[in-house]
Amino acid sequence: MSFTNRLIILSQKIHPYNIPRFRFRKLDTRYKIMYEKEYNLHENDINKASFIVFLISFISIFITSNFLSIFNLVQTFSYSLIFSLFFSYSFNNKFYKEILKKENQLNAFVYVIRIYFSLIQKSVGNRADLPINFIRLISDYNLPIKKEFRKILNKIQLGQNPEKLLSNVITPSIDFNSYLKELLISNFTYNETLTENSVEKKFRQYLREIESKLSIFFFVGLFFPLGVCFLILFQKINIILLVIMLPLYFITIKTLNKKFLRNDSFLLGLLNNYSKEEKAKFHEFISFLKSFTLNLQKNTSPEIAFINSYSQNKSQIILTDGPIKSQITNLLNFACSFEEMLENLQIEINSIRFKIILDVIGKLVSKNAYISHKKINELLNEISKHQKLERQLEIIIKGERFRVLFFLFLLPIVIGGIGGLFPMFNIMINNISFSSSIHLSSLLELFFSYDFVVIFLALWFCVYTSSYYFLKIISYERKSILIITSCIIYIVAFFSSFFNVLNYF
After folding, report:
1. Residue 26 DSSP label
2. Maximum CA pair distance of the chain?
3. Which has the least CB within 10 A, 9, 116, 266, 409?
């Protein structure tokens, strides 16, 4: 039995009991329905189970910490509370994240579905077949709702009404639900162009918020290590607490990077998380498809349009030349059909975006080769719109490059300089005397002391972590060089400060 199934069984068993609930987020009606539909759970069942998880975690951590006598009572209570809330939130968030993942997958295909179905509307003369064609369309795509639509298809074969079955469909995607509703109202004649979907709106919101989020990220990445430095200097932090704070810092900055800066919206034309080579390959391929659309518009066959496009753009096709050339050779040798060639090209290029685009082109051309160029052009226009959004993001990120590089070199100097003051406070507190006879032995004793080694490595870890995630913001490809440079600066600053302090004793 999987871990998810165990969690579902736990939540179902406590349904009849009136126990406290932990509610971490307010769910809209759509998500509540999806909980019941996907997991046979009510929202309150998960909130009750979240409280149980919190209670068990708190008691376990509290008793274990007291038994080991690591912290005092206040510290034990605080850490137990924090970690228990974290476990409870993770449990509560698991089901939400699974539905959100399905929503993102479905949102990514809504525009493609609209384009393909609009072509079906023009191609199929009998309107009575449109609902069934729509159901078959969804059943053929690798979507989270594919199984549900296959069940609907089976029920139709048993004599049930397709419109009535579709009216009961509720999916995680607002866009898909809205589109399906419009189709049902218009008797499947609805064919308006979608100006902007929810994923694009979400990305625009991400663009507006990113600068503020970057400021918070830089604040944590810069001042958390500084705070650790000052706590060490004034002897307000012990080694055990330091060992706990470092993973906490790593988790915090990694979470901020994931929640604040990483964009999980799937847009066909958006490749901001990819390398420069992958972006160049994609742009090269889109240019080739634009040429293919123009040739297809001349009422030539898809095969000839594809071959002519390659001939016209051969000098500009570099990164994708190998796969395209080999498939055109197969096409010229009559080794495969046009649709089979596109399928083979998907396998050779091995990219989700290429696969989606080529799959759509194959379906459009096979359905109606004469008017497919209009729909392919609509798809390319949508991709072009996504590329414009990506350029806006790139402008913002480039604007942050100076600040990232400035912090990258400032942070190790400050942390190393303050961290190197540690021996001064250690000498003052322990009243170490550096007479000429014991100067070397005292120095070696201090240098190889447990506290010194742990503090040096702890601050080094902070510098390394901040440097890595700072560079991740600007998608700097050669991170290792700058990270090594930053660490070297920290080591030089630390030992320079360390030996300069010793000169005063």
Report:
1. P
2. 104
3. 9
Cα gap 219→226, rounded to integer Å: 10
Phi, psi of 69 (to 5 degrees): 55, 45
Whether residue 451 contacts residue 243, with contact meaning beta carbons closer than 8 Å, is answered with no
Contact status, residue 286 vs residue 383, Cβ threshold 8 Å: yes
How far apart are the C-alpha atoms of 495 and 420, rounded to whole Å? 6
Distance, CA of 336 to CA of 200 (rounded, Å): 38
The pTM is what? 0.69
Q: What is the pLDDT of residues 405-452, one digit of tens each?
A: 888 888 888 888 887 776 566 555 555 454 444 455 556 666 666 667
Q: Is the dihedral of CA 109, 114, 119, 124 positive or negative?
A: positive
As a whole number of angstroms, the distance between CA 190 and CA 383 comes to 23
CA 453 to chain CA centroid, Å, is: 36
Burial call 142-160: b when 16+ CB within 10 Å, e when fewer: ebbbeebbeebbeebeeee
d(CA 351, CA 353): 6
Please write the tens of the pLDDT for every residue from 274-306.
Answer: 667 777 788 888 888 888 888 888 877 888 888
Which contacts (CB < 8 Å, 24+ apart) does range 20-28 have? 20/48, 20/51, 21/47, 21/48, 21/50, 21/51, 22/47, 22/50, 22/51, 22/54, 22/88, 22/92, 23/47, 24/50, 24/88, 24/89, 24/92, 24/93, 25/92, 25/96, 27/96
Rounded Cα–Cα distance for residues 309 and 320 (Å): 13
Q: How many CB atoms lie within 10 A of CB 497?
A: 20
75 close to 56: Cβ distance less than 8 angstroms: no
